[in-house]
Amino acid sequence: MLTRKQFELLRFIQERLRETGVPPSFDEMKDALDLRSKSGIHRLIMALEERGFIRRLPNRARALEIIKFPENTGGQPAARGRFNPSVVQGGLAKPKPVEAVPEDARGTVAIPVMGRIAAGTPISAIQSRSHSVALPADMLGSGEHYALEVRGDSMVEAGILDGDTVVIRRQDTANTGDIIVALIDDEEATLKRLRKRGSSIALEAANPAYETRVLGPDRVKIQGRLVNLMRRY
């Protein structure tokens, strides 16, 4: 049996994984459960792990995976990786190396890799296509997708590491809390979490070593939202 707070946290983690593909931060969990400190979240996570509902990957920030859900609640564990090169939910899967795959590979969709994206100091905007990776169509949903290679460590607490490949759904709008590709002043691109602050846009890192940038809406163009993550081993 779970306590009410344990169940609320499990449900919140599940919902965030479904929406963004990455676990929530400790601050987000604290706010969602209306707790005063992150120590309460630590205790709840330890309790869920001890009871076998979640799993954590040691020495990696925000690496959470839902293993099971309490019976008779109507909940289902958040989707786990269903294709070999995928690292979802903070990288708990043990994937095979990412490889380029022919565009006519059966049952897959070729996703163009459009250069690199900064998870740190912004770099030049999205470049031309360099190669493709193939993903099962049912992992992507509707819309147009592209991939970018991550450079930098500003999103490590979101489970996004230097050298990862992020899969992006191309779109020009997003919700607060989404991890997005942001083009700043039509010159530099970065991967950050979107926060809307009144009429301004905040680009929030998932690493305390980096500051949140607050910019006017006329300076930021959303070029897509993170939907999946791949990692080389």
Order of helices and strands: HHHEEEEEEEEEEEE
Q: Give the helix proportion (percent range).
A: 10-25%
- Alpha-carbon Rg, integer: 18 Å
- Which regions contain 5 or more consecutive residues with pLDDT less than 50? 72-106
Categorize the overall geometry: globular
Count of helical stretches: 3
- Biggest β-sheet strands, sense, barrel: 10 strands, mixed
Cα(first) to Cα(last) distance is 38 Å
Mean pLDDT: 76
Strand content: 25-35%
Question: Could you give the topology of this structure?
Answer:
Blueprint: H1 4-20, H2 26-32, H3 38-50, E1 54-56, E2 64-66, E3 108-118, E4 123-124, E5 131-136, E6 145-151, E7 165-169, E8 179-184, E9 188-197, E10 200-204, E11 213-215, E12 220-230
Parallel strand pairs: 3-6
Antiparallel strand pairs: 1-2, 3-5, 4-9, 6-7, 7-12, 8-9, 8-12, 9-10, 10-11
Describe the fold and architecture.
- The chain has 233 residues and is an alpha+beta fold.
- Helix content is 16%, strand content 31%.
- It has helices at residues 4-20, 26-32, 38-50, and strands at 54-56, 64-66, 108-118, 123-124, 131-136, 145-151, 165-169, 179-184, 188-197, 200-204, 213-215, 220-230.
- Strands 3, 4, 5, 6, 7, 8, 9, 10, 11 and 12 form a 10-stranded mixed β-sheet that branches.
- A hairpin with a 2-residue loop joins strand 9 and strand 10 (200-204).
- Helix 1 (4-20) crosses helix 3 (38-50) and helix 2 packs across helix 3 (38-50).
- The longest helix has 17 residues, at 4-20.
- The protein is globular.
- The chain starts with a helix and ends with a strand.
- 36% of the residues are buried.
- Mean pLDDT is 76; it is low at 72-106.
